[in-house]
Amino acid sequence: MRGARVMRTSRAGQQRGAAPRAEIDASWDRVARSGVDPDQSTESELLGSNEIEHRRNASTLGEVMPLLRDGLASIADASQQIMVVTDVDGRVLWRQGHAAVMRQADGICLEEGAAWSETSTGTNAIGTTLATRKPIQVHSSEHFVRSLHHWTCAAAPVRDPRDDRLVGILDISGPARTFHPATLALVDSVARLAESELRMRHLVSIERLRSVAAPILCRLDGPALAVDSHGWLAAVTGMPPVDRLPLPKSLQAGRVWLPSLGMCRVEPLPGGWLVQVADASLDGPPRRVVLDLSRARGLTVQVVNPVGTWTQRLSPRHAELLYALALHREGRTAAELAQDIFGDPTRTVTVRAEISRLRRHLAEVLAHRPYRFGDGVEVEVIHPEDPADLLPHSKAPVVLGARGSASQ
C-alpha cells in the first residue's frame, strides 16, 4: 500500500513534487482498497428511464430542483460547466448546463443514471462527498482514474433538515480549464440554500397538519398529539408538548407501543399521524370514505374515523386512482391500475410511486397486494350532475369508460 501511495503522490504532485491534500490521500486509500484501477474506464451500467423516474419521484431533492436550476444551473452554463444532482447511491438523477460540456460529459459517462460513487469511479467530488459527507473540490490529477485528469469538479452534500439524513449530492463539473477556487463555496452555499428551502417547506407542512388536527384534538378527552411523518409536533392536547416524538421506522395505523407514551392508537392524517393514548373505545377501522368528484377544481377525499372527520384535497391523478379503486372493490394490481390510468400496463413504476404518496395520507383505508380499499370501509363516490363532467380533463381509460357508460 505504501508503494501505491508514493505512486499516487507523485502523480498528483505532478512536477512540483507536492504531497496530495489529506482528504485526497484518504480517498485514494479507500478506492485502492476497494479495487479501483487508475487505468479503468468510468463507464457504468446506466439505470433505466423507469428507475430514474422512480428515484426522482422518491427523492426529496425533487422538491427543490427549481431552486437548484435557478441558483446553479445558469451559472454552470455561463462558466462552461454542468450542474449534476445525484441520490445517496451516487446515481445521477439530474444534470443541466453548457450544451457542449454535456456532450463531453457523455464521454466519461457523467450522464443521467450513471454511478459516481468512489467504489465505481474512484476519487471524484461526488463520490468523495458521499464517503465523507463533507464538501470537496477535486481537480485534474487529484482524480484517481486517469481518464478524469482533464476534469474539475466540486460537490456538497444536501441533508433533510427534518432528520439530518443525507438526501443527495449537488455538484458542478467541467473541463479542467474551468477550475476556479470559489466554485466549492458557491456549490456549498446553494446546497445550504436548498436545505433552507426544505426547512421552510417543512414548517408550511406542519402548519397545514395543525389546521387539520386542531379541530380533531379539540373533540378528544384524553392525551393526544399530531405529528408529521418524522415525529415533529404539530398540535397537542392533554399532555405537555414535545419538540419531536420518536417514531418506529415502519409505522402503521392501529395499536402501537411507543416507549415515551406506552400503548397508543395511531391513525393517519394528511401529512402525518394522530397519536392518542389507547382506549378500548377507539378500536376499529375508519367506517367511511367519501370521494367527491363533483367539481373539477375541488376534488377531495373525506375520511370518517372513530375520532373525527378530515378532508384531503386530491390531484387529478390521485382522483383517477381512487376512482378506479372505488369501481374495483376487489382490488387492482399495479399493472391493472396502469391500464386503467394510462392505457399501458407496463407503467407500473409510476403507479406504485403515486399509490405510495396516497398511502402516506390514507394508509388506514388503502390496502395493498392488491391495491384496494380496506375491508369494512364504506366508500361513497359523489359524481357531477352531468356525467360528461366527471374529471373532464382526464384521458384515463377508466374515466372515459365511465363517461361513455353514463351517456348510453
Write the layout of secondary structure elements.
Layout: H1 2-13, H2 22-33, H3 49-58, H4 65-78, E1 82-86, E2 92-97, H5 99-107, H6 118-121, H7 125-132, E3 136-139, E4 151-160, E5 165-175, H8 183-218, E6 224-228, E7 233-237, E8 254-258, E9 262-269, E10 272-277, E11 288-292, E12 300-305, E13 308-313, H9 316-327, H10 334-342, H11 348-362, E14 366-367, E15 372-373, E16 378-382, H12 397-407
Parallel strand pairs: 11-16
Antiparallel strand pairs: 1-2, 1-5, 3-4, 4-5, 6-7, 6-10, 8-9, 9-10, 11-12, 12-13, 14-15
Helix pairs in contact: 1-2, 4-8, 10-11
Q: Main traits of this protein?
A:
408 residues; alpha+beta; 5-stranded antiparallel β-sheet; disordered N terminus
